[in-house]
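Example record

One chain of 235 residues, shown exactly as stored in the release files.
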Amino acid sequence: MKHVQASLIGNLGQPFLFLLAMGFGLGRTIPEIEGLTYLQFIAPGLVASAVMYSAAFEATYGSYTRLSTQGTFDGILMTPVNVSQLAMGEILWGATKGLISGLIMLAAMPLFGVIPSLWIVLVIPVLMIAGILFASMGIVMTATASNYEYFNYFTSLLITPFFLFSGIFFSLSSIQGPVAPVLRCLPLTGVVNISRGLAYGRLSSDLLFDLLFLLGYTLLFLLLAIRLMERRLVQ
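Predicted structure tokens for this chain:
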């Protein structure tokens, strides 16, 4: 339990600090974006990023520890549980931790003066799907990792760019040129858009497309994670 608490606090630290620094600090000097104050604009995106960080880190560092250091996976596979079930268990555990982190951020929004609409309740299953997606991505890395340093590639080349360029801190509608479609197709972008739309009751057909993209990414990485874990553990 202490390990879980420490992990949640660690993964929530960055979103909370960005909410304070960017929302209360920089946000005082930035005009409204899409009819929202800067604090209102970034808060739903930081909820989505909290899910991403918690799910991804649990499915990398946590899962790799159980795989290589603790020998937990070997013990589990001595039972009737097969590799696919083991991989799904790891993904669902990572997704659950991601959801808990997202809910904590969500509950904290009113403390910062951000009052969401009642539509925000619908974001909970979306955050769970997002947790499955990023936990699956983490398991893909775990299944191919040879050491802990390998996860630096995942963090530096994927997780951090997702955090910075998925529309949390700026409106993607202001981006032009060939880079615009790339940013709109990032896995976290759809989660940010859906979270922001539901947070303020701004429903549109675009959110449906974001949801379909999210489901597609999730299915793809879920199947890939199970396949690679089977290849790693079935000798």
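Notes: The chain has one domain: 2-233.
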